[in-house]
Write a structure and sequence with these properties.
Number of helices: 12
Order of helices and strands: HEEHHEEEHEEHHHEEEHHEHEEHEEHEE
Helix content: 25-40%
Structural class: alpha+beta
Strand content: 15-25%
Shape: rod-shaped
Number of strands: 17
Distance between the termini: 106 Å
Mean pLDDT: 82
Strand order of the largest sheet: 2-1-5-4-3
Length: 494
């Protein structure tokens, strides 16, 4: 038996212990307490139910350590290390059975190592503030919504992407409104399918979303379902705007195409130089000896006429070689004032005697009064060559090709129109004709680069181009090149 002094010391030790210690009956009635509850006397707790006093509950707590100790008759620890239970369902941490003086069973409940409610609330507040800062600081748009689609989280980057303010989104916007054509149902199906990143997850999904003004925006979406006790309660998505990435990608593709074409043109220049060298020597010999025969021999008139024809054809061959060299000459994209009409005539000179053009009527309406244009003549040659060849191929070698130059609006532009009498371009294809690698030709007959390069050349000169093609009434390309340029050589817009 303990002495009275020992009992007093133990009682004082219990009263000084800053954690909760209570003795509870099997019916959860408080028999004794040392709770240190502010403004509450421990004696006033005796006779009341523990769950009512401590947690304001009408029924015993879920996962109750006292209940477990009563059932099994051994001490019970219910909360695992590291768990952070909901403060409204906070169970007793530790309970063990005892025998009272009257032989009746009772239970001691203790909360040592258990954080106080204030500590829990402080931790929750700090955790919530940290999570909020993470979401607000995200470089992506972050949107969370409940299962009815009501938005509960919406950061500033989401506002930049979708055009709705944070206040608008939280008050009036439904998550379904940001997706076109019921795409949200497809996303939910994929979220529930483990093949797309795991159950409740969707990784790097390419999708279009709808801006407030109705335009579509390409997005890379990472999303997940939020579960609570195994039940779907919300969804959260991270929306990465792909517009800038797509723009840079398009620029890289365009640069790659231009580099490829530059390489091809360099090869053509080398080939032309080699051909010119091989042809000019024999052509020079033909010209020289034809002139010598004409000068030194007394020939019949018919023979002199035949030799004159040989001389003219040889001179024509030399002129053709000269034009070919000029066409393929590498200028390192150096822009200088050039005669647009001369560039068009050079292109036609090289093409009009080819077989494809034998049954094509070529109509030229070139205004010789238009000023020279600050331009890269090699690029202009290539631009006209592409458009004229496309026209001849569209007409299948029969029809009418028209080329017209005029001074444009406010005398600030040179306007070039190249039209054909072919079948025209179908309406569904017309928006794509300037796309790289887009072609309607059979495999092996075209690369789909021609008109994309034309577009790039016009853009490089600060100009603009459009295509008009009423079905069945031919096709017309209208090109406008600026006459006024800034000191860097680009277009000067008023």
């Amino acid at each position: 038996m303990r002495s009275e002094a020992e009992k007093q010391y133990l009682l004082k030790a219990i009263e000084s212990f800053q954690r909760r210690i209570i003795v509870i009956s099997p019916e959860f009635e408080i028999l004794a307490a040392s709770c240190h509850m502010k403004g509450v006397e421990d004696a006033s707790l005796v006779g009341r139910h523990c769950h009512e006093v401590l947690y304001d509950r009408e029924v015993p707590c879920e996962d109750c350590a006292v209940e477990n100790a009563r059932i099994h008759g051994v001490p019970s620890i219910r909360t695992k290390k590291g768990e952070f239970p909901d403060q409204e369902k906070l169970p007793c941490l530790y309970a063990y059975p005892i025998k009272t003086d009257n032989g009746r069973q009772a239970f001691v409940s203790m909360d040592f190592d258990m954080p106080s409610r204030k500590e829990i609330e402080d931790r929750l507040q700090r955790s919530n503030a940290f999570m909020r800062n993470l979401i607000l600081s995200s470089v992506d748009g972050v949107i969370a919504a409940d299962m009815d689609g009501k938005i509960v989280v919406y950061n500033e980057n989401a506002a930049e992407i979708f055009g709705y303010s944070v206040e608008e989104a939280l008050e009036n916007l439904n998550i379904r409104q940001i997706y076109p054509d019921h795409v949200e149902y497809q996303i939910m199906r994929k979220l529930r399918n483990p093949r797309h990143g795991g159950r409740g997850k969707l990784r790097s999904h390419k999708v279009d979303v709808v801006h407030k003004d109705g335009k579509r925006i390409p997005i890379n979406l990472n999303a997940s379902i939020v579960y609570e006790n195994g039940r779907e309660v919300a969804t959260i998505g991270f929306f990465h705007d792909m517009r800038e990435i797509n723009r840079v990608k398009a620029e890289l593709e365009k640069t790659q195409v231009q580099l490829l074409q530059s390489e091809k043109m360099a090869s053509l220049g080398k080939l032309a130089a080699g051909v010119a060298h091989q042809l000019n020597n024999p052509l020079g010999g033909i010209t020289l000896f034809t002139k010598l025969v004409l000068e030194e021999y007394d020939l019949e008139e018919g023979v002199r006429e035949d030799l004159g024809r040989v001389l003219r054809d040889a001179e024509r061959c030399k002129e053709t070689v000269k034009e070919l060299l000029e066409f393929a000459r590498q200028t390192r994209h150096l822009k200088r004032p050039h005669d647009i009409n001369k560039a068009i005539r050079r292109t036609l000179f090289l093409l009009e005697n080819q077989t494809l053009f034998h049954n094509i009527e070529i109509e030229k309406d070139l205004d010789d009064s238009i000023p020279r244009v600050q331009s890269d003549v090699q690029q202009l040659n290539h631009m006209f060559m592409n458009i004229v060849l496309n026209a001849a191929q569209a007409m299948k070698g029969e029809g009418k090709l028209s080329l017209k130059t005029r001074l444009g609006s406010k005398n600030e532009w040179v306007r070039i129109e190249i039209s054909d009498s072919g079948p025209g371009i179908p309406e569904e294809i017309l928006p794509h004709i300037f796309d790289p690698f887009f072609t309607t030709k059979e495999e092996g007959e075209g690369t789909g680069l021609g008109l994309s390069l034309v577009y790039g050349i016009v853009e490089n000169h600060g100009g603009r181009i459009k295509c008009e093609s009423p079905q069945g009434k031919g096709t017309a390309f209208v090109i406008e090149l600026p006459l006024k340029t800034d000191e860097n050589g680009g277009e000067k817009l008023e």
